[in-house]
Design brief:
This protein has about 450 residues and is α+β, with helices and mostly antiparallel strands. Helices cover about 40% and strands about 10% of the residues. The strands form five sheets. Strands 2-10-9-6 form a four-stranded mixed sheet, sandwiched between helices. It has a three-stranded parallel sheet with strand order 4-3-5, covered by helices on one side. Helix 5 packs across helix 8. It binds pyridoxal-5'-phosphate. The site of pyridoxal-5'-phosphate has 15 residues, from helix 5 and helix 6.
Length: about 450
């Protein structure tokens, strides 16, 4: 069997337990695990009884009558659009609450995570001909928003142990054109912010965090999104804080945040608020959040800490049980990560502990047990056909030389992330961690069943 791929040196810097504390001692985990092993018999894919007849995960989103009332109040207020930034507005009230939750001075709400990323990159002056350092395993919007500013997203490969941006590869990709670093706390785990902020300082390049999947995650006890110069969030329906569509930018820098805020509101500056009167000559667009979105997000915000704590507890239970198994483990975390978020909880599959059973066959067998695993975050954006869509536009051809675009194409290589997508990345969604401890044990039972019988599943 293959030796665990992580070296001792790396292990000292990273550990696989994602949440602080835990509901279960290791001894307790061992006896639960022993029972699971006893129970685990014929896999469903070979005709056995599935571990679960009902899928995992709670129904999402979660709301009650009070949420509906908040939405109706916004409806009946007859104020269906807010753009004055007065303290009485629902959107402004939400912004204040979110800034407080995130521990930043300012929050500017937007109508999506995509527009949050757009406004934030504009605020740090990303524009035609520039480059923004980002990563390949992220949602397409991270890169699209850079391309939409006629700049090039420079895709950095992933760390094979954490599945985060490999911060050791950033410095060699910095050029005179680099205008921002845009790390993504993908899945809700933290990127290595110590290294990233040190590079930012050394080269005087701002950091815009894409925290669209990372509500309530923390780096050294600071909320993800509040570590860099600006942080962007999505409140799209599947996110841990959601209002259908919606987003926000947070930060402490008054000047940058005033730019974000004004850009999102057709260049209008704030009045009756804590921003100074800073004018931007009307530069802007309409990225405004509606009062309906703010009402829903405010309702959801009330549950965010409690839900995050439940996810912490369930993931701690799962992780203690997974310690008993070889071949499936949570991705390692950087030591600075004091809390993770759970939008997509990624794990590392090693077929060498499953008689060489491929990841796709493993996922199929798990699915037959009623445990649907995702494919990790396998988006190797550097291979996306959308890139050529942008590079072949008249604008890109005018702004960039042929040589520069060809070099960009040649440098677009991220082999580690491709391997994660093809062989090692598996995942569970945030809703799964709002279930019960028994759900976590079912996941482990299904894995054990398949491991015991792997040779018959090849
Ligand atoms: C990492 C990341 N960035 C950006 C976005 C864009 O957010 P939205 O869908 O709210 O526009 C998302 C949403 O899925 C995301 O996951």
């Amino acid at each position: 069997m293959k030796k665990d791929s992580i070296t001792r040196r790396k292990f000292l810097k990273k550990t696989s337990i994602g949440a602080t504390g835990g509901a279960l001692s290791l001894g307790g985990a061992t006896s639960i695990y022993a029972n699971i092993v006893k129970q685990a018999d014929i896999p469903a894919i070979l005709g056995g009884t599935p571990v679960r007849t009902r899928g995992l995960g709670v129904s999402w989103p979660i709301y009650d009558e009070s949420d509906i009332q908040m939405f109706l109040d916004a409806y009946k207020s007859n104020r269906w659009s807010e753009y004055s930034n007065r303290d009485t507005e629902r959107v402004v009230q939400f912004e204040k609450m979110y800034a407080e939750t995130m521990g930043t001075k300012y929050c500017a709400a937007t109508n999506a995570g995509t527009t949050a990323l757009d406004a934030a990159q504009r605020a740090v002056d990303v524009g035609p001909g520039d480059e923004v350092i980002t990563q390949t395993n992220t949602f397409i919007a991270t890169a699209q928003t850079t391309f939409n500013l006629y700049a090039l997203p420079v895709f950095i490969d992933s760390d094979p142990d954490t599945f985060m941006i490999n911060a050791d590869l950033i410095e060699e990709r910095i050029t005179e054109n680099t205008k921002a670093i845009l790390p993504v706390h993908i899945g809700g785990a933290a990127a290595d912010m110590d290294k990233i902020m040190a590079i930012s300082k050394k080269y005087n390049i701002p950091v815009v965090e894409d925290a669209c999947q990372a509500h309530m995650g923390e780096w050294r006890n600071k909320k993800l999104g509040a570590v860099g110069h600006l942080g962007c969030f999505s409140f799209q329906a599947g996110k841990s804080l959601c209002c259908g569509e919606g987003g926000a930018v947070i930060g402490d820098d008054e000047n940058l945040m005033a730019k974000v805020d004004a850009y999102s509101n057709n260049g209008r500056t704030r009045w009756g608020s804590s921003y100074k009167r800073i004018t931007f000559a009307g530069i802007g667009s309409n990225f405004r959040m509606t009062p309906f979105q703010a009402a829903v997000a405010t309702g959801q915000l009330r549950r965010l800490e409690e839900q995050s704590t439940l996810r912490d507890e369930n993931s701690a239970h799962l992780e203690k049980l997974l310690k008993e198994i070889q071949g499936v483990k949570p991705t390692y975390k950087y030591l600075g990560q004091t809390r993770r978020a759970y939008y997509i909880y990624q794990m590392i599959y090693d077929k060498n502990y499953f008689n060489g059973l491929s990841k796709s066959k493993f996922r199929n067998a798990m699915s037959e047990e009623g445990i649907r695993l995702g494919n990790g975050i396998d988006s190797s954006l550097h291979r996306g056909s959308f890139i050529e869509g942008y590079l072949n536009t008249r604008a890109f051809k005018n702004i960039f030389s042929k040589q520069r675009l060809n070099k960009y194409r040649r440098d677009n290589r991220c082999p580690v992330n491709e391997r994660i997508g093809e062989e090692t990345g598996i995942s569970l969604g945030q809703r799964v961690f709002l279930g019960t401890k028994k759900d976590m044990e079912d996941i482990v039972e299904a894995i054990v069943k398949i491991q015991k019988n792997a040779s018959k599943l090849l």
